Amino acid sequence: MTTPADVHDVRDPGLPGRLLAAERDALVPLLRSRADEDWALPVAACPGWTVRDVLAHCSAALARVVEKRFEEGVFSPGSNERDIAERAGWTPARIIDELERGMTDAGPVIARAGGALDQVALGEWVHAGDVRVALGEPGAYAGSSLPEALALLVSVTRALGHVPVHADLDDVDEPLKLGEADGARPPGRFIGDAATLVRLYAGRSVEGPYELAGVEERELVIFG
């Protein structure tokens, strides 16, 4: 059984960095083991993007965080496409190197940002799941870093004032309380596995059975 990291109402500034480091240790060796032609595979969760595009976006986003390059429109679709285009001539190894550095160095910067960049770390973890699906690898939206990802999902949805949801997870010991319970509406209820919960919040297609009551799927999505 998996138990998510301790989650309190007070933000844990080190949590995003721990999630990135755990995912780095799992993802980077996997990427280095794959053939270059695998980088041309389409990523269903990101229409029009290949594995290369997703990883170039991820490495660029973390490089921006580390270097504190946040010009107007940063992380918009246009900005993301420009970052990908800038890396079009890079070898897979170079992109992986940049991604590994970003996953190592971004944590302290995110910690000091007071929560403003926490969602970047969660997005990187979700994109790692997108890449695993494209490569036919197991562990998408799950794996050893799932406890940290769930804890960060709780923290991010609270900070966003998101719709309140109580999640009873098949593969996690303790229920999760997501979103902001401000009394304006009763919490929704989710019953299912953790990977399905992540898929719903990330706006990804859902494969396994689940129950959702008191809230619509579209209300859960936190990534545009």
TrEMBL record:
Q: Pfam families from the xrefs?
A: MDMPI_N (PF11716)
- Its name, as the record gives it, is Uncharacterized protein (TIGR03083 family)
Under InterPro entries, the record lists: DinB/YfiT-like (IPR034660), Maleyloyr_isom (IPR017517), MDMPI_metal-binding (IPR024344)
Stretches that traverse the bilayer: none
Annotated ranges, domain Mycothiol-dependent maleylpyruvate isomerase metal-binding? 20-106
Matching NCBIfam families, A to Z? maleylpyruvate isomerase family mycothiol-dependent enzyme
